[in-house]
Automatic annotation (TrEMBL):
A Gene Ontology biological process term: amino acid transport
Database matches in PROSITE patterns: ABC_TRANSPORTER_1 (PS00211), ABC_TRANSPORTER_2 (PS50893)
Function according to Swiss-Prot or TrEMBL: Part of the ABC transporter FtsEX involved in cellular division. Important for assembly or stability of the septal ring.
Naturally occurring in which organism (per UniProt): Acidisoma silvae
GO CC terms, sorted: plasma membrane
Keywords: Amino-acid transport, ATP-binding, Cell membrane, Membrane, Nucleotide-binding, Translocase, Transport
Domain ABC transporter: 20-255
Source taxonomy: Bacteria, Pseudomonadati, Pseudomonadota, Alphaproteobacteria, Acetobacterales
Protein name: Cell division ATP-binding protein FtsE
Amino acid sequence: MTQTDVFLEERAGVSAPPLLDVRGIARRLGSHQALDDISFSLASGDILGIIGRSGAGKSTLIRCLSGLERVDGGSITVEGTEITALSETALQTVRQRIGMIFQHFNLLSAKTAAENVMLPLLIAGWPKRRREERVAELLDLVGLGGQAKRYPHQLSGGQKQRVGIARALAASPALLLCDEATSALDPETTTSILALLDDINRRLGVTMVLITHEMSVIRSLARKVIVLDHGRIAEQGSVAEIFGAPRSDVTHSLLRGFRPELPDHLAAALRPEPFPGSAPLFRIDLAGENARGTLLFDLAQSFRVRPVLLHGGLQDVRGVAVGSLFVALADAGAAPVDAILSFLLGRSQATELLGHVVPSA
Ligand SMILES: Nc1ncnc2c1ncn2[C@@H]1O[C@H](COP(=O)(O)OP(=O)(O)OP(=O)(O)O)[C@@H](O)[C@H]1O
């Protein structure tokens, strides 16, 4: 099953209709095709991370999802309502179901934290008493119970983003769009904001779409990933699939530093053909079940080879063990490399024969 099939299967599944369904959207900015044939769907409660290099089209996509920008073609459906078909007035009502948080927080500087959070409730016409109760509840939720009367300039960056999150959640949106929500924050504050968003998703079940250029954000928060490149989807899948076996060049490049790579001295020692004393060296990409098995033991038993682990490692990606091992097979003399490769392909996300090295190198 391909990664796209996983998405399509969910779309066709017996469960509830998707909360967000995007079909073939396109958007042109001047002479530039900023988005081209973007399709995906998202179930209620899911968290989708959209990543891409600068200029890939991330901001344009999130602006289209929020209804701030119109598409030139295709459709966007939120909770069964096709927002791309709505008039500006009808869109205003649906947009109350969509919350948004921003890189630079976008708080009103002349209003207190509580007044900023209250704004969407004023617009939605909530009565005063309920508004005040709701604001107190939201400030507690984001850990700012004691800061209600502070102005933005009296708050740290992390606290400002907490106000932004409380404001976005005020009218109980079904969909929360996060536009580079942690890009202006230091690493420690980033971790605490991502943990808060994760907690909110678990407690309130809010569906989230986050755009970012940082793979660390995707790894910490997303469950599904779309990699955008030049306005098109280069690749999509679960976060474990993307980290475990990336397929597109752009994903490989965005993951640099997040996946084990062959150390330079080993790469320099690699030869394309076997030579006396050499062993074939494989890169084995693993995720989930196959990362926990007895792969190397079974390999040794089945082919009477001696697997020598030269490099690699596993990391935890949203509860799934994901990683790569660089394994040389000593004493593989008579063992058929093709059969070994097909054995490994059946037990891994991906396996590649990199060349031949002296195993102790
Ligand atoms: N008015 C415009 N006319 C022509 N091209 C535009 C216009 N506005 C944006 N673009 C181009 O559209 C592309 C997509 O821009 P967008 O801001 O969506 O990308 P992005 O992935 O969010 O980038 P970044 O991470 O740098 O914010 C970029 O190449 C940008 O230069």
